[in-house]
Amino acid sequence: MNENDPKDEIRTRLRAERRALGDAERDAQMGSLRGHLLPWLAEHAPRKTLTCFLSYGAEPPTGVLLDELDAAGYTVYVPVCEPERRLSWVRWFPGVEMARSSVAPIDEPVGQRFSADLMDRVDVVLVPAQAVDDRGDRLGQGGGYYDRFISSMAGLGRVPKLLAMVFEHELMAAGSFPVDPFDQRVDAVATASGVRNLTV
User: What is the mean pLDDT of the chain?
Assistant: First the structure.
């Protein structure tokens, strides 16, 4: 971490704020978020195929959401970390075998790994974020995994809708955090208050 990087300073503050929310408040906000997100997906994911991240730490908890998506008949893929901070995608379902990642301190599903070409079949990518502003700019965790992945879709014929999930206070006004040329925008954001479109 570069101690002089203003993004890292903002991430440190936001991570502390997430921890301070506590489990009960994080679960409550995510419950409200799911209540808005599932009807939105019914309208925007006609092929019922999407990606979702496996939450860790104080991120918006996705465990119940994943179960609800499966129960509703969605085909769900989750990201797995590859060398050079790249992502592949593995099919997720309840009870899928998990194993420790070889490149990150997290557990990931075991199964066939798909490249970004999979996105031709995906309606929506649910994107993790530390914060999102009202122009769609996203502050990630700092690893660049999703920025690289989103960039890699530029040559695809069809690109899925990108929707970030954050806590209520993490949807911010434009200019609340620095944005670099490499940073990739999202199309929409989901919070406890609802799903909001951020791009025209």
Answer: 92
Measuring CA to CA, which residue among 57, 193, 30 is closest to residue 126?
30
Beta strands in 41-123 (DSSP E): 49-51, 75-82, 86-92, 98-100, 107-109
User: What is the pLDDT averaged over residues 40-64?
Assistant: 96
Return the amino acid letter for 103. Answer: V
Closest alpha carbon to 136 in 185, 178, 191 = 185
Q: What is the pLDDT of residues 82-125, one digit of tens each?
A: 988 899 999 999 999 999 988 878 899 999 999 988 999 999 99
Closest by alpha carbon to 53, among 118, 126, 113?
126
Cβ-based neighbour number of residue 197 at 10 Å: 12
Cα–Cα distance between 166 and 189 in angstroms, integer?
7
Nearest to 80 by CA among 49, 59, 111, 57: 111
Structure confidence at residue 6 (pLDDT): 84
Instruction: State the helix-helix crossing angle for 63-71 and 6-44, rounded to 10 degrees.
Output: 20
CB 40 within 8 A of CB 196: no
- Count the residues in the chain: 200
Q: Which two tokens stand for residue 83?
A: 């060398």
> Who wins on pLDDT, 109 or 143?
109
